[in-house]
Amino acid sequence: MQGSSVSEYRKCLFSLCEELTEGNLHDLKYLCRDRLTTRELEEINTATKLFEYLEIKQEIRRDNLRLLKDLLTQIGRNDLVENLNEFKRKRSFKCNGKSVSLDFQVDDSLEDVPDAAEQTSNGAGNNNDPTSRGPEGIMLREISADVYEELGFLLNPDSFKNWKLLAGKLGYTLTHVTNFKLCPMNSTQMLLQDWSQRGDATVQKLYQALVDIGRVDAAQKLKVLFPSRGTL
């Protein structure tokens, strides 16, 4: 069963489709001519179909809505851009079977940062294997869920140098920390899951943040992902 965040994402896309006019769809198809084939464009007769094709091509993802935001801005639908921003402000997590809603301020400067994986896509090596790109090129969301759990085991316990200090280092406010505290057994995992959606959330940056707060033990959990490298 899909999580509540995926469901809200789907609802958001559907609501956008409902609001787009035929004229809007015509303009969107024109703007997507460099991303879709002529045949695909001919088959698209609804906004839903357009979004479906863009999702298949990974142009639109729950964790990357930059293109969609740009398209809506280009056709002058700033009202729908605001709807999209509202979705991005609210992300839901499951905690003990209950949905915990976290409200975030959208930081456009962060959203416009290209993924490190995209920046290194033209480099050498097999980019299907994240570790081949090195820690500076691998996004946190690409690593195994086991690593999230190991970091949670180390950082969830109440202490001075725990996940709360890391949250501050990563730029989160007291309001965010208060919400993460609602799930004390999964606070670190929730923090990392949210931070991993940012365009600059690399393993390298998390490693450095952990070192900076004095949690070298936790940083080592990331370092072992790259045994061939002396340092991260």
From TrEMBL:
It comes from the Eukaryota. Keywords: Apoptosis. InterPro entries: DEATH-like_dom_sf (IPR011029), Death_dom (IPR000488), DED_dom (IPR001875). Residues 118-131 have a biased composition (Polar residues). One of its GO terms (biological process) is signal transduction. Residues 162-226 form the Death domain. Residues 8-86 form the DED domain. This is Caspase-8. The gene is Casp8.
